[in-house]
């Protein structure tokens, strides 16, 4: 499930790109399909980094083997100033108590006129999850805040970034999480959860045109994620 549209980033050979909070590597694998990039991924989870590395190593259509993954704290990044041409930070800020410090660090290591992409859960879809399930927002390592569109945009532009596009993604995933909140987050035996998960997996693998068109239509209404595309300076 890729949240960031890489074609919007105008990446060029030899660009240095960071996925800050790479998780299991969903965006790293997309970046590896772009020839000539130098790719970095950081995460606090050693298990997630291990899975990301394995998936990159076994990719049949990789165009770049120039990547490095490491454990790091996003509020204290081990990189020099102005080290990256582009930074992706997808579904990370909602987990971080010191989110403003994290943004300052991303600003520090991004080159002038570099591209930053930030995505977080959208207010409407996330608020329903919080309303339905106390377990959802009490989950260890889970979401500690819900951003309103204007609130996060002001935080990003207040750091000096210019927002040139806002997009919405994953509308069909919103009902899946509402359903899980209703039946219990750990309840994988529920038949509706099982069937909906299989539907989402089928959609990711097969990308049927009708379903893709349906989601594009629904994204502005009930998209699970909101994505900010920004330029430094």
Describe the structure.
The protein has helices spanning 26-31, 46-57, 99-109, 123-132, 134-138, 149-158, 173-183, 191-206, 209-222, and strands spanning 16-20, 38-43, 67-71, 84-90, 110-121, 161-169, 225-232. The chain is of the alpha/beta class. The protein has a domain at 6-122 and 141-171 and 223-232: Vaccinia Virus protein VP39 (Rossmann fold, 3-Layer(aba) Sandwich), CATH 3.40.50.150. The chain has a seven-stranded mixed sheet, sandwiched between helices. The longest helix has 16 residues, at 191-206.
Summarize the structure.
The chain has nine helices and seven strands, in the order E-H-E-H-E-E-H-E-H-H-H-E-H-H-H-E.
Structural class: alpha/beta
What's the CATH H-level homologous superfamily of the domain at 6-122 and 141-171 and 223-232? Vaccinia Virus protein VP39
Question: In order across it, which strands form the biggest sheet?
Answer: 3-2-1-4-5-7-6
Shape, per Cα inertia axes: globular
Strand residue percentage? 15-25%
The quaternary state of the protein chains shown equals: single chain
> Residue share in helices?
40-55%
Radius of gyration from the alpha-carbon trace, in angstroms: 18 Å
CATH top level of the domain at 6-122 and 141-171 and 223-232 is Alpha Beta
Low-confidence stretches: none
CATH topology of the domain at 6-122 and 141-171 and 223-232: Rossmann fold
| Biggest sheet character | 7 strands, mixed
Number of strands: 7
């Amino acid at each position: 499930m890729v949240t960031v549209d890489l074609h919007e980033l105008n990446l060029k050979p030899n660009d240095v790109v960071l996925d800050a909070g790479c998780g299991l590597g969903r965006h790293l694998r997309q970046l590896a399909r772009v020839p000539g990039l130098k790719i970095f991924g950081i995460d606090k989870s050693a298990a997630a980094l291990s899975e990301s590395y394995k998936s990159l190593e076994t990719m049949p259509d990789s165009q770049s083997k120039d990547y490095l993954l490491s454990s790091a704290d996003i509020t204290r990044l081990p990189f020099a100033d102005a080290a990256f041409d582009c930074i992706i930070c997808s579904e990370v800020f909602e987990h971080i108590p010191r989110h403003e410090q994290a943004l300052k660090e991303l600003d520090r290591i991004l080159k002038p006129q570099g591209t930053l992409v930030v995505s977080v859960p959208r207010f409407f879809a996330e608020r329903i999850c919080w309303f339905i399930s106390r377990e959802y927002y009490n989950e260890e390592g889970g979401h500690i805040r819900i951003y309103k569109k204007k609130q996060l945009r002001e935080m990003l532009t207040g750091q000096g970034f210019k927002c040139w596009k806002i997009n919405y993604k994953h509308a069909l995933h919103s009902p899946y999480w509402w359903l899980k909140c209703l039946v219990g987050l750990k309840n994988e035996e529920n038949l509706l959860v099982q069937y909906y998960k299989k539907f989402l997996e089928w959609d990711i693998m097969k990308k049927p045109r009708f379903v893709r068109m349906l989601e594009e239509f629904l994204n502005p209404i009930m998209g699970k994620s909101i994505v900010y595309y920004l330029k430094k300076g």
